[in-house]
């Protein structure tokens, strides 16, 4: 069912990030919620790893632990072998909403990180313009967030994360609120950015097609408490051909992953019904 994956523990390549026995429990006593069972997961350098799973399975919790926003209850999470002890500029985060500074224009938003790191304004703005050009928004540098569409705001958020030159990009359903056409265009764009920059990416999505189109590695998670149910290495990450979705192997993997997710969605529903 599963295939060898660069996200697998035991890969010959030293991992960029590693979850070792990581679990998460919120609260204590009878009302405590076990969000994650112990998880072992290696993320290879330059990998594009997508997390799939039913709502509430702990995908965002796992990402937040690597971001340094949450602490694991048990286990360790490391980056380049060093423990993650809090947020770090080496790990850039892109949320579901652009989360832009409304009082700054687009250029100022993207240049904020380099400026905060001590770069001179001219250098910071040159860096910002380079990444705005990469996401196709250099012509909107002087616009403010309220003047942009949702898809454009997300592109600014991606440019802002890239301008900080992180080693890992953590992206929590960044296209979830977008219409289907905009989402597909941005999927193609983010794939081109990944091919150009080879950043290590951990990406959360509910879309099987999105995961298959983008990822070097897909990790399917179970219903809460989250655990790794299956892993795949789909093999489409190097292609920007939008007709991939019609290829037999793409269709086969989509059906297999759908079956796994359906099982877990039903399990999550039964959990809710039992409350």
How would you sum up this structure, described in words?
This protein is α/β, with parallel strands linked by helices and 275 residues long. It has one domain: 3-Layer(aba) Sandwich (Rossmann fold). The chain is 36% helix and 21% strand. It has seven helices and ten strands. The strands form two sheets. The chain has a six-stranded mixed beta sheet with strand order 6-7-8-3-9-10, sandwiched between helices. Strands 2-1-4-5 form a four-stranded antiparallel beta sheet, covered by helices on one side. Strand 9 and strand 10 form a beta hairpin. Helix 2 packs parallel to helix 4 and helix 3 packs across helix 4. The longest helix is centred in the C-terminal third of the chain and has 26 residues.
Output the CATH homologous superfamily: P-loop containing nucleotide triphosphate hydrolases
Count of separate DSSP helical elements: 7
Please give the CATH class.
Answer: Alpha Beta
Q: What fold name stands as the CATH topology?
A: Rossmann fold
